[in-house]
Automatic annotation (TrEMBL):
InterPro entries: NAD(P)-bd_dom_sf, Sc_DH/Rdtase_CS, SDR_fam. It comes from the Bacteria. One of its GO terms (molecular function) is oxidoreductase activity. It comes from Embleya scabrispora. The keyword Oxidoreductase applies. This is 3-hydroxyacyl-CoA dehydrogenase. Keywords: Oxidoreductase. PANTHER family: 17-BETA-HYDROXYSTEROID DEHYDROGENASE 14-RELATED, SHORT-CHAIN DEHYDROGENASE/REDUCTASE. PROSITE patterns: ADH_SHORT. Belongs to the short-chain dehydrogenases/reductases (SDR) family. The keyword Oxidoreductase applies.
Length: 253
């Protein structure tokens, strides 16, 4: 699919995987709308790439719709990359016998899973009305899961469940959206060197990298962006979940 002259939305585009993807899309001639809660950083990145920033919490329908409207106003919306999300660590029952906080579990699932679906459904509705390209293709969507969806570690009940949900929605949503010519794929990253690890000592990063089969390092956001761009533009990639992890398989802890 040709994204030149089209618009794209990147949720969580103010930093990390989302920022790298927004930059890759802009470099390819796509008008990018960054939807993020971090207004200061989001506006800065948008200015650097010639894009638009919309303050948006992906769990809020009207805020995501505002991002969709902003994209449609610029150019036909043909791409969404959903990167907004976060993680947390808590055992189902702590060592002192305290049960996992239900509100914390609900927060992670709402942000990572429901927020993803919210962005997908609203962006896809806008894509349905754009002029089709070859084979009737109108758009493409990339969601972000995690290897925790498959190899969830101790303390990752909420995070693993939320990302497993993203994996689980990939095929049925791809089937749903095939009727309007929109493809859906998901990337499941492993350990990625993002802002989450900015303050981590190099020894910690080296330890994480040593668990990777090859290359023996953490992944970098540009590698995610490269794969996301391929998933958006390669019209025969559909309904796939691709691990981007260097072959790592998480151990229990």
């Amino acid at each position: 699919m040709d994204l030149t002259g089209a618009s794209a939305i990147v949720t969580g585009g103010a930093s990390g995987l989302g920022e790298a993807t927004a930059r890759r899309l802009a470099a390819g001639g796509t008008s990018v709308v960054i939807a993020d809660r971090n207004e200061e950083r989001g506006r800065a990145v948008a200015a650097e790439i010639g894009g638009i920033f919309v303050a948006a919490d992906v769990t809020q329908e009207e805020q995501v719709q505002a991002a969709v409207d902003a994209a449609v106003a610029v150019a036909p919306l043909r791409a969404l990359v959903s990167c907004a999300g976060t993680g947390m660590g808590a055992r189902t029952v702590a060592r002192d016998g305290t049960p996992h906080a239900l509100a914390a579990f609900e927060f992670i699932v709402r942000l990572n899973l429901i927020g993803t679906f919210n962005a997908v459904r609203l962006a896809a509705a806008a894509m349905a009305s754009v002029e089709p390209q070859a084979d009737g293709e109108r758009g493409a969507i990339v969601c972000t899961a995690s290897v925790a969806a498959f190899d969830g570690q101790i303390g990752q009940a909420a995070y693993g469940a939320s990302k497993a949900g993203v994996v689980g929605l990939t095929l049925p949503v791809a089937r749903d959206l095939s009727a309007i010519g929109v493809r859906v794929n998901t990337i499941a990253p492993g350990t990625m060197d993002t802002a989450l690890f900015a303050a981590a000592p190099q020894a910690v990063k080296d330890t994480l990298g040593a668990q990777v089969l090859f290359p023996k390092r953490m992944g970098v956001p540009d590698e995610f962006a490269s794969l996301a761009y391929e998933l958006l533009t390669n019209s025969y990639l559909n309904a796939e979940v691709i691990r981007l992890d260097g072959g790592i398989r998480f151990q229990p802890k």
